[in-house]
Amino acid sequence: MKRELMMGLSLLLSASMMSGCAGPRKTGHENETVKSSESTSTKKDSNDQKDSTDQSDTQDQKKVTEKKATQKTNSSQKKNETKNTTDKKKTTKKATTSKTTQTNNSSTKAASQGKTICIDAGHQRYANTGLEAIGPGSSTKKMKVTGGTQGSFTKVPESVVNLATAKKLKQILISRGYKVVMVRESQDVNISNIQRAQIANKSGSDLCIRIHCDGSGVSSVHGYFILTPSHNNKYLSSSIVDQSLKLTKCLLPAIQKTTGANNRGISYRDDLTGTNWSKIPTVLVEMGEMSNKQEDEALVTSAYQEKMAQGMANGIDDYFKS
Ligand SMILES: [Zn+2]
C-alpha cells in the first residue's frame, strides 16, 4: 500500500482491545448502513491518502504514483531480480523446515482438511492505470492496480516483498495440508484488482488473504495491521463480512506471536476493489511500514518474511479450528 497518513483514524483497535481469535461481532446494521457506506467511502477518498493497490484517490495522485512506481521499479529491477533468485533458493529450504513442523502438529492438519486458500500478493512490477469500479454496480472507480510503495531505506518495491512472502506462505500452507491458489507468482503480470478477486472467486477457495506492505511516510510509525470490510459494506454479504472479521481476529495475534511486531489492529475498509468484488472471506494484511527504517530492513529479509508467513499460516489454522 501507499504512503498514508490515515492510520490514526482508521486503525481502530489496538492489540489489547482485540478479542483474539473469537467469532465475529455482529452489528446488525447491514440494511440501514448500505447507503452510508458510499458516503463513507467518498469521505475517506477525499480525506485520506489511501492504499495505492486499489485505493489511489485522485487521477493526479494516481498518475504521480504510477510514474514514481515505474521509475522506482526500473531503478531497482536488477536488485529485485537478484533478490528473487535468492528468495527462491531460500523458499525451497524453508519448505523443508515447514514440513517438519507440520509432522508434529496433527491438529493443524485437521484444520486444513479439504481447505483451499487463495493468496494474492499485492501489486505487480508495473502499475495499470486503467480504471475499474470499486465494487459491483459502483460508479466510483480506481486504478486497476498500482505499483505499491517501496522501502524508504532499502528501495525494494512492496510488490517484491509481497510476492516473496506469499510464496513462503504457500509453501507452509501446502506443508500443512492446505490447497493453495496463487493469484500471481511473478512480478511480470498484469492482473487488475477485480481480476484478482475473480481468480479467488472461481478458484473454489475458502478464503483469500491479500498480502501488502504499507508506507505511511512517517518514519516513526511501525507495525502491521489488517484491512477488513465493515458491516457498512454494500457489496458483501453479512456472512462474508463476519467471516472476514473472524479471520482478521485470528491473524492479528498469530502474527504478533511469530514476529513480535507492533499489532496495530483492524482498519475497516469498504473501498477496496479487491475485497468488494470478492465472494469469499477476504482480508488484506499490511505486514509493516516500509517508511520505518527497522521495519523496512526487516521486511526485505527472507527470515522476517518467513516469520510473517508462519504467523499468517497459524492464524489461518486458528480460523478453521475456531
Ligand atoms: Zn499495497
Q: How is this structure best described in words?
A:
The structure is a single chain. By secondary structure, the chain is of the alpha/beta class. The chain has one domain (7-321): Zn-dependent exopeptidases (Aminopeptidase), CATH 3.40.630. It has ten helices and eight strands. The strands form two sheets. Strands 4-1-5-8-6-7 form a six-stranded mixed β-sheet. Helix 5 packs across helix 10 and helix 7 crosses helix 10 (302-321). The longest helix is centred in the N-terminal third of the chain and has 45 residues, at 59-103. The relative contact order is 0.21.
Descriptors for this entry?
alpha/beta; Aminopeptidase; two-stranded antiparallel ribbon; 10 helices; 47% helix; binds zinc ion
Attached small molecules: zinc ion
Q: Please give the alpha-carbon distance between the first and last residues.
A: 30 Å
Domains, number: 1
Shape: globular
The CATH homologous superfamily name equals Zn-dependent exopeptidases
Quaternary: single chain
CATH topology: Aminopeptidase
Strand order of the largest sheet: 4-1-5-8-6-7
Task: Output the helix-strand order.
Answer: HHHHEEEHEHEEHEHEHH
Computed structural class: alpha/beta
Biggest sheet, open or closed, and with what strands and sense? 6 strands, mixed
